[in-house]
Design brief:
The chain is α+β, with helices and mostly antiparallel strands. 43% of the residues lie in helices and 26% in strands.
Length: 594
């Protein structure tokens, strides 16, 4: 029988992948053999993997309960060798729509290759070009017109955009590795038309009126030139206002993903960028407002999203077809609740199986799938690698992600000591060239000044390097450390206490160099943290949300696991008591005759 790598290489889904990509894919793939009649998947359980039939046959049956709570089959399907299902679940977890059983009655055992979605996303992060080989025929549609419908080709198409955008740190918002955009839009073009109507009217009318109605003959040279200057002045004024409105409109975004609601607002007056975000679970209500007859006629309006976050309310104002946002959020909120119930069911089944030592009806074949190890840089151990680890703005370690302030901060802090050094060198040159001083005469003073100035410069650099922000799986930490061990202050907060994360660039210089602040709002107002002057604040905001998602998922798993063990123990005690016939009847028996 073919190995995992050989089978994957020949499968139509992966035939365009390179040999290295196939080997990496085989490493994250589980091969499992099932007994005849064994359950491969239960309807309603969490679906987050791709299933490929390597040999044998599967039978899928979707059932539904009627009003009388009787179950009946609504659809069924067979899966033979080479067939697969769940390719869209690699990117967007869902629930199993059917019970899937292994059918080995013809003597050929059902063997499956299973690829977990989380491991697959990590695989794509290391091999981003592999995604183009998975579905080369898929046409990527315009993101603003895209509505996820759960179809496989759309999942691949959306994933192609996802990983292309994730590589661009300067994008409108920073996308998480397993995050898909469900809705993305700017404000309505009708809103833009209203904003530019009067500037456009002024641009077309006012200069012309001045030019044609300001009476001046060519012989009157001054007045004739004045007419051109005044017309040109008003033309430039209205053109500037027009361009200002267009640029201000084009840099504001409203985004709904499968995890978050994001409002990115760029204020061209102050060059400030604010990114407000709330998790889908925090959305409490969605209200669509079309306050005027014109708004109803042109189908644009405002969506008011009330959340449990510190922002309270996020507005998607003056957007086309606002009902789309409501439908998208309703769909995502419903999916979150469905997945939550599905995880509860899946974990409950696992807990009961472990407690009662239920014998599994399957066995792994070969080595168990393992996540791909992180790629080690080729220059690891070199001087460049050590300098990068010491001074780079974002460094990932085994225990934490470490952030430092933007490099422009150290440049600004170094201006004074560098200027003093240059002025000292210039003064020494002038003294030697014009005042008959010798270098030997100036050497003691130069050594003293340069030594103090160099120490000052090194102090500034080390003070910048020692100020860092750390993100771990439990904590978020702000460390302000003095150079050479002259003191340290540390402020930290639990990830579980985070209410919201706001990223923004305060002004023009920050926006040009793409650095700013990240405000972390926690349950206690006094414990709020601010990451100041950090590069790519939206990336750090996404890192925090990703870590928060992982923490909440693990926390929910632990809480559910504890509760389910109590359920299992209760059921176990009940079963033992029933086997001993120690529980009396709780309902009346037959009514005795009169």
């Amino acid at each position: 029988m073919a190995t995992k790598a050989e089978f994957l290489e020949q499968h139509p889904l992966f035939k365009e992948l390179t040999e290295e990509e196939i080997e990496a894919l085989a490493l994250i793939t589980d091969e499992v053999r099932y007994e005849n009649g064994a359950m491969v998947a239960y309807q309603g359980d969490v679906a987050d993997s791709l299933y490929i039939v390597k040999s044998g046959r599967l039978y899928a049956e979707s059932r539904k309960n009627d009003i009388e709570n009787d179950s009946y089959v609504i659809s069924s399907q067979n899966y033979l060798t080479g067939d697969y299902f769940g390719e869209d679940w690699l990117f967007v977890p869902n629930v199993h729509p059917a019970n899937v059983k292994a059918d080995s009655r013809q003597g050929n055992p059902a063997t499956l290759l299973i690829i977990n979605g989380t491991n697959f996303v990590r695989f794509l992060n290391q091999y981003p070009d592999a995604l183009h080989g998975l579905a080369p025929e898929v046409e990527v549609v315009d993101e603003e017109e895209r509505v996820v419908a759960g179809l496989p080709d759309q999942a691949f198409a959306e994933a192609q955009k996802l990983f292309a955008k994730a590589k661009r740190r300067r994008s409108a918002i920073s996308i998480l590795p397993d995050e898909l955009v469900q809705f993305s839009a700017r404000r309505s073009h009708w809103y833009l038309l209203v904003q530019i109507f009067f500037p456009l009217l002024g641009l077309l009318v006012i200069p012309g009126l001045i030019f044609f109605f300001f009476n001046a003959q060519p012989a009157e040279a001054f007045l004739f030139r004045l007419r051109f200057w005044v017309s040109g002045f008003f033309f430039l004024i209205f053109l500037g206002i027009l361009l200002f409105q267009i640029l201000d409109w084009s840099n504001d975004y409203f985004v709904v993903t499968n995890k978050r609601v994001v409002h990115r607002e760029f204020d061209l007056r102050t060059f400030r960028v604010d990114i407000k975000t709330a998790r889908i679970e925090q959305v409490q209500s969605v209200e669509v407002l079309k306050p005027t007859f014109l708004a109803n006629m042109l189908n644009f309006g405002t969506v008011r999203i009330t959340t449990a976050s510190a922002f309270g309310t996020i507005f998607f104002d003056n957007i086309d077809n606002p009902i789309r946002v409501k439908n998208t959020l309703d769909r995502q909120s419903k999916m979150v609740k469905t997945l939550d119930a599905s995880r509860e069911q899946t974990l409950l089944r696992q807990t009961f199986g472990e407690h009662f030592a239920v014998r599994p009806q399957y066995e792994p074949v070969g080595e168990k799938a393992t996540p791909l190890p992180p790629v080690r840089p080729a220059y690891e151990g070199s001087l460049w690698y050590r300098l990068r680890q010491r001074y780079y703005w974002r460094v990932e370690t085994e225990d934490a992600i470490i952030y430092r302030k933007h490099f422009i901060v150290i440049i600004l802090r170094s201006v004074v000591p560098v200027s003093i050094g240059l002025l000292t060198a210039l003064a020494a040159f002038l003294l030697i060239a014009y005042f008959q001083f010798t270098f030997r005469q100036l050497l003691p003073a130069l050594v003293l000044v340069f030594a103090v100035d160099l120490f000052w410069l090194v102090w500034r650099i080390e003070d910048w390097r020692n100020d860092m922000f750390q993100l771990t799986d439990r904590l978020i930490v702000d460390i302000d450390r003095r150079p050479f061990g002259f003191g340290e202050s540390r402020k930290q907060a639990l990830l579980s206490n985070i209410q919201n994360v706001n990223a923004y660039t305060p002004n023009l210089i920050h926006t040009i160099f793409n650095y700013g602040n990240v405000d972390i709002e926690t349950a206690g107002a006094e414990s709020n943290l601010v990451f100041e002057n950090v590069p790519y604040p939206s990336v750090i905001q996404s890192d925090i949300f990703a870590q928060l998602e992982n923490m909440l998922d693990q926390q929910n798993r632990r809480q559910r696991g504890t509760r389910h063990k109590e359920y299992a123990l209760l059921l176990d005690v009940y079963k033992q008591t029933m086997e001993q016939d120690r529980i009396p009847d709780r309902t009346p028996g037959d009514v005795p005759p009169l």
